[in-house]
Design brief:
The complex is a heterodimer of chains A (272) and B (315).
Chain A: H1 7-31, H2 35-41, H3 53-94, H4 98-111, H5 115-128, H6 135-158, H7 163-171, H8 176-187, H9 189-205, H10 208-213, H11 222-233, H12 237-257, H13 259-269
Helix pairs in contact in A: 1-12, 3-6, 3-9, 3-11, 3-12, 4-6, 6-9, 9-13, 11-12
Chain B: H1 2-5, H2 37-57, E1 60-61, E2 69-70, H3 74-80, H4 83-115, H5 121-128, H6 130-133, H7 136-146, H8 153-156, H9 158-161, H10 170-198, H11 202-210, H12 215-226, H13 228-243, H14 247-253, H15 264-274, H16 278-303
Antiparallel strand pairs in B: 1-2
Helix pairs in contact in B: 2-16, 3-16, 4-10, 4-13, 7-14, 10-13, 10-14, 13-16, 15-16
The chains are: A mainly alpha (272), B mainly alpha (315).
């Protein structure tokens, strides 16, 4: 069916595009201006000079360290998610035990638990096991809160594997473990990359758990670094914008190269 | 919520009386419950056990040092008598309502538009989704810089923003938080509506066209009713999201001016981690969980979502 272009929606979309794009433009153009120029000409003006000093300042203020910490947290979270979610989803989709379907409902319930609701007990727990101000203490709860959505996404993918394929494996007398490694995992590559990208995004952007579970500069992650930078040098707008831009670069790179996995994960997050 | 509907398993569980682990063909690809155990235990430890613990801690006094001490209903009495707590609940409600009424129409329009087949759509929607990728912290710091009274956009456009100190008044601060919430979350809800709009069967529109229904009529008679389930999912996510808004409040307004944007989630953080009154903080956390669950249940009930079998009814 051929549809006419919808002009009204087109104009509305264009307006919202401006609302989204102008702040991003100001952010990037501001980072290349000196403080004096930015202050004189205002944020919306075209830059007349070019400097990288703001990025140098941002990195000099400790962002290199914060990046490293965030990378450690992200890698840890993704590793836990990739270790725990595939066997869980396999059991949810293929197990015939009642317990497995109960577990699925348990994780659906978990989707509705906001992290704020549990930060006090998590703080208590992490303190009690001596992981306060330790990146492992940030990784564990962050990974736990990524599990429900990743389970939902991956079990959706695994449901698409047809029964005939399992029967074909049955001919060879394969065990559940063999079916998992030879059949289920290879056929779930799309879902696996989606949950990897999705949990990485959550870990990278995480703020609340690092805020309450870390303290020292050695364990500071990028999001906390931004907050800290803002309270300390709030008046240095171009420097602040450079720090914000730096924090976004890895995510935007992932978006460029793994857009499909990311968008599918987000769509799965909202249900279909 | 739609997730519950997709929760049907291809092989209905049930009569698995005494199934040996490896009884030949029938057990292939039928993993035991043990496969689910590690993730379940891990999740229970950091989400479910703490949820129960928060209820217990709400009856204790704990300053972060030593052990929590049982104090009965003391925290709850404090909270009920606390004007800031009551105010924070009203503010949270206001945030939720304003968030839903600003984000829902916009994301439905953008989502339906993005589901179409315009030529430049792909490029544009790539830009739309950028805010979705950024951390709340980065977004808040960015907007705080953009709205700086001296060096930001309001200073440059003083004919539009007056003295430019948007965060200095209650209505200004709430307006900024709602707007930044829109900027941040509209892409996500747009994406949900886009997926749902793509799933609407084409025959419905063809039938409407034969009946002579115009584009606007089609939108209101077909598209909107078909997006009903999606709208409920999206609104519930907005409610829970609005109720737990935290980073934007902390970084943009710090609850101020005064306590004028101290919503409940932020107040909980202040009581627990700034006043070191973890008992009261736990009580507020419990209120948050109960309110979030209650509002979600009301939305489900009022909309009749629980009685609906399929969005394709009548086809």
């Amino acid at each position: 069916m051929k549809t006419r272009p919808n002009y009204l929606a087109g104009v509305g979309s264009f307006l919202w595009l401006l609302v989204v794009a102008i702040p991003l433009y100001v952010m990037i153009s501001g980072t290349f201006q000196t403080r004096a120029e930015f202050g004189d000409n205002g944020p919306l003006a075209f830059p007349t000079s070019f400097t990288l000093q703001n990025y140098v300042d941002a990195i000099a203020s400790g962002f290199g360290r914060y990046f490293l910490n965030t990378v450690v947290v992200t890698v840890g979270v993704v590793a836990i998610v990739l270790l725990l979610v595939p066997p869980l989803s396999y059991a949810i989709v293929r197990s015939q035990s009642r317990a497995a379907s109960f577990v699925f409902r348990f994780f659906l319930l978990g989707l509705a638990i906001p992290a704020q609701a549990v930060i006090v007990p998590v703080f208590y727990l992490i303190n009690a096991v001596g992981l306060y101000d330790n990146l492992i203490g940030v990784i564990l709860p962050t990974a736990a809160f990524a599990l429900p959505i990743c389970t939902l996404i991956l079990s959706g993918t695994m449901r698409d594997i047809t029964g005939e394929l399992y029967e074909a494996m049955a001919m060879d007398g394969a065990s559940p473990a063999r079916a998992f490694f030879r059949l289920v995992l290879p056929l779930s590559k799309g879902g696996l990359s989606t949950i990897a990208v999705f949990s990485a995004l959550q870990a990278w952007n995480g703020f609340l758990f690092p805020l309450i579970l870390t303290q020292s500069e050695n364990t500071r992650v990028v999001t906390l670094g931004l907050f800290n930078f803002q309270t300390q040098y709030g008046i240095n707008i171009p420097g602040l914008l450079a720090a914000v831009t730096l924090s976004m670069v890895p995510v935007l790179l992932v978006y460029l190269f793994a857009r499909r996995a990311l968008v599918q994960g987000l769509m799965g997050a909202g249900g279909k | 919520m739609t997730m519950l509907a997709t929760g049907k398993r291809p092989a209905p569980g049930g009569s698995t009386v005494s199934r040996p682990a490896r009884s030949g063909a029938s057990s292939v690809g039928r993993p035991g419950f043990a496969w689910a155990l590690p993730a379940t235990i891990f999740f229970a430890l950091f989400a479910l056990v703490p949820l129960a613990a928060v209820a217990v801690l709400s009856f204790t006094s704990w300053s972060g040092l030593g052990d929590p001490r049982f104090v009965g209903l003391e925290n709850w009495e404090t909270l009920i008598a606390d004007p800031v707590m009551l105010k924070s609940l009203w503010l949270s409600l206001l945030f939720i309502v304003l968030g839903v009424v600003t984000q829902t129409p916009l994301s439905i329009l953008l989502g339906v538009w993005a589901a179409g087949n315009q030529r430049n759509r792909a490029v544009l929607s790539a830009i739309y989704f950028v805010p979705l990728l950024l951390s709340s912290a980065a977004i808040s710091v960015l907007w705080r810089a953009l709205l700086d009274p001296n060096f930001g956009i309001p200073g440059q456009l003083s004919w539009l923003f007056g003295d430019g100190n948007l965060l200095g008044t209650q209505s200004g601060a709430i307006g900024v938080l709602i707007f930044v919430g829109m900027w941040q979350f509209t892409p996500f809800h747009t994406l949900i509506y886009q997926g749902a709009a793509r799933g609407i069967p084409h025959v419905l529109y063809q039938a409407a066209e034969i009946d002579g229904a115009g584009r606007v009529r089609q939108f209101f008679s077909i598209t909107l009713p078909q997006l009903r389930n999606t709208a409920i999912t999206s609104i519930i996510l907005m409610v829970v999201g609005g109720l737990t808004t935290f980073e934007t409040v902390l970084i943009l307004t710090n609850g101020g001016p005064g306590t004028d944007t101290t919503i409940t989630a932020f107040y909980m953080y202040q009581e627990a981690f700034q006043s070191f009154d973890f008992g009261v903080g736990s009580a507020i956390a419990l209120v948050l969980v109960v309110v979030a669950t209650a509002i979600s249940l009301v939305v489900v009930k009022v909309s009749g979502y629980d009685k609906m079998n399929s969005s394709l009814e009548g086809l």
